Amino acid sequence: xxxxxxxxxxxxxxxxATSACALSASAQTVADIVKRGKxxxxxxxxxxxxxxxxxxxxxxxxxADVTALVGKYLGVPVEIVxxxxxxxxPALEAGKVDFLIATxxxxxxxxxxxxxxxxxxxxQVGIYAKKDKAIKAWGDLKGMTVxxxxxxxIEIEFVKREKELGLKILRxxxxxxxxxxxxxxxxDAIAGPDAQSNAAIKAKGDTExxxxxxxxxxxxxxxVRKDAFELHQWLNNAIYFIKQNGELDxxxxxxVGSPLPDLPTF
Length: 266
Description:
By secondary structure, the protein is α/β, with parallel strands linked by helices.
């Protein structure tokens, strides 16, 4: 009996210790972050100009610059955690980051697991293919092999039409490898954001790939865990502030080449 009590007590102590470690690793309020002395932010890579890495392996791009700006207003150093699209929400839920600035679209399905701020960026999404492909509408993709970023909201558009159009969908880990699949002829067409796709086309010096048609606009929000209400409100305030004072538009001009479009609120 005493042995069982000791085992039970040890289990409780272990659980409390594990919980304490998780809490210290994943701050839920601004006060938690300031007390710890740094903020850990998950940032998307593999999707230039929003996120990529430089020659030294550091994250660069729109999201990295926005993260640095948010860190400035928090008044603490920033630790960037580089993430691929499928790893974003799992990293947040596991407490590996305090929040995400990772080009993540707020969707009803995702909102069941996390909380989204008002959008801090937005881009148009379209179908890209070689110039010799006669594609003007969804029906023209019938029977084609198409590529998309795995885990992105854009993937849903292909999935909805997969059976009707007889599509063969190939999924890749990020926007860069999706575009490379198009350049190499591995796929007939891809669905992707305009800024990332245009940046990849320009970087490669490709003259054979073009936009076929746009099918939507994707706003992107910062993301916190479901119970981080105070942090969520602070980030909403920060986004509003840096949009109004022009700092967010300056980052957009630097990386995308144009001011931000009108951003929806909710």
